[in-house]
Amino acid sequence: MSRLTTRQITLIAVMSAISIVVAYSKGLALSSLPGVFEFMTVLIFVTGFCFGTTVGGAVGVIALTIYMLIPSPFAHPAAWLFSISPILLVVMALLGGMFGVAGAFLSKRIESERTFKFTLTLGIVGLALTFVYDIMSSVGFALGYPGFTTIGQALWLTFVPLYYPWPPIIHTASNALIFALVAPALILAIKKLPESISSSTD
Q1: Could you tell me which of 141, 133, 144 has the C-alpha nearest to residue 99?
Q2: What is the pLDDT of residues 156-182, one digit of tens each?
Q3: Phi, psi (deg, nearest 5) at residue 40
Q4: What is the pLDDT of residues 81-114, one digit of tens each?
Q5: What is the DSSP string of 76-138?
Q6: Cα 63 from Cα 3, distance rounded (Å)
Q7: Is pTM beyond 0.70 here?
Q8: In the chain, helix, strand, coil percent, each to 5?
Q9: What Å distances lie between residue 94 and 55, 87, 98, 181, CA to CA?
Q10: Domains of the chain, first to last
Q11: Does residue 59 contact residue 100 with C-beta atoms inside 8 Å?
């Protein structure tokens, strides 16, 4: 693997910081709707789409790792336990990286343009990625805390309401909408920046 360039290191630091700040602020979402809206994963995806696999993957791993180690109060089930399992931490870090790598992968296969096809594609990709994220994070929780739940129970609780009036899987649907509405605008805005900033790094 080639060494990181100064530009890549700068982008990783800046985009990781932005993603973490957005995550802790609940993505500027309504505080009365916890677990429904978040904007961290779409930022990680856009980072990968615009700046490549290395930057996107690194930002995803760093952002999710910090968010899990220093969670916003009750941001995720592990926050209630006041500890983090190394297994869950690794799973979440890899899932964060998945969004960045997926963004880089898609950028090589679709033109970023203001069209319905582009918007629809990003919405579908967001739906698929978030479904994997929600399912695998439940599996990771079960593996990390075997005394609290089984994998089957964790998966079941992904689809039924427990702490809130809505089930956790609603995140999949809301993120699909966010990917369709937010990702295209961010990508096109970044593409308008000077080439030294907006061009892919790998």
Answers
A1: 133
A2: 989 988 777 788 899 999 999 999 999
A3: -65, -45
A4: 556 789 999 999 999 999 999 999 999 999 988 8
A5: SHHHHHTS--HHHHHHHHHHHHHHHHHHHHHHTTS---SSHHHHHHHHHHHHHHHHHHHHHHH
A6: 21
A7: yes
A8: 70, 0, 30
A9: 14, 11, 6, 25
A10: 6-198 (1.10.1760.20)
A11: yes
The first and second tokens of residue 104, run together, are 């880089």
Sole residue written with tokens 């990286």 = 97
Contact predicate 46/189, CB 8 Å: no
Residue 126 has which token pair?
A: 């967001």
Phi, psi of 84 (to 5 degrees): -130, 125
pLDDT recorded at residue 78? 52
CA angle 26, 143, 156 (to 5 degrees): 70
Residue 28 clears pLDDT 50, i.e. is over it:
no
Side-chain half-sphere of 102: how many Cα atoms within 13 Å?
24
Contacts of 106 (CB under 8 A, 6+ apart): 49, 121, 125
